[in-house]
Design goal:
By secondary structure, the protein is mainly beta. The protein is about 5% helix and about 50% strand. It contains one helix and eleven strands. Strands 2, 4, 5, 6, 9, 10 and 11 form a seven-stranded mixed sheet that branches. It has a four-stranded antiparallel sheet with strand order 1-3-8-7, with no helix packed on it.
Length: about 120
């Protein structure tokens, strides 16, 4: 059992930055790959970024490559998503999630979800 609590969402102007945090409790977070999904109104939930158990491998969807960076601090059971040069199309509810591997997360094989945090980017 893992509980995930996101923070850091909010309102930002286009071109700005936000850093999302996801703190895990319960099962040690290092046992899981971790990732960030997002879902905009009328669209499917998509995996934005993911990171392996050790932090040695990462995944990014094409639309955020070069702008977003995922990282983790296993000592703190926390994963971060640094979002730079934000665009209005990044507006969505962002969800932290854990799964067995990055590949699993790319197919939405998720063991636990966070409650979500809203990111709104104004033009």
């Amino acid at each position: 059992q893992v509980q995930l609590v996101e923070s850091g969402g909010g309102l930002v102007q286009a071109g700005g930055s936000l850093r999302l945090s996801c703190a895990a409790s319960g099962r040690t977070a290092s046992a899981y790959a971790m990732g960030w999904f997002r879902q905009a109104p009328g669209k499917e939930r998509e995996l934005v970024a993911a990171i392996s158990r050790s932090g040695g491998m990462t995944y990014y969807t094409d639309s955020v490559k070069g702008r977003f960076t995922i990282s983790r601090d296993n000592a703190k059971n926390t994963v971060y998503l640094q979002m730079n040069r934000l665009k209005p199309e990044d507006t969505a509810a962002y969800y932290c999630a854990v799964g067995p591997t990055i590949v699993a997360l790319t197919t939405t094989l998720v063991d636990y979800w966070g409650q979500g945090t809203q990111v709104t980017v104004s033009s």
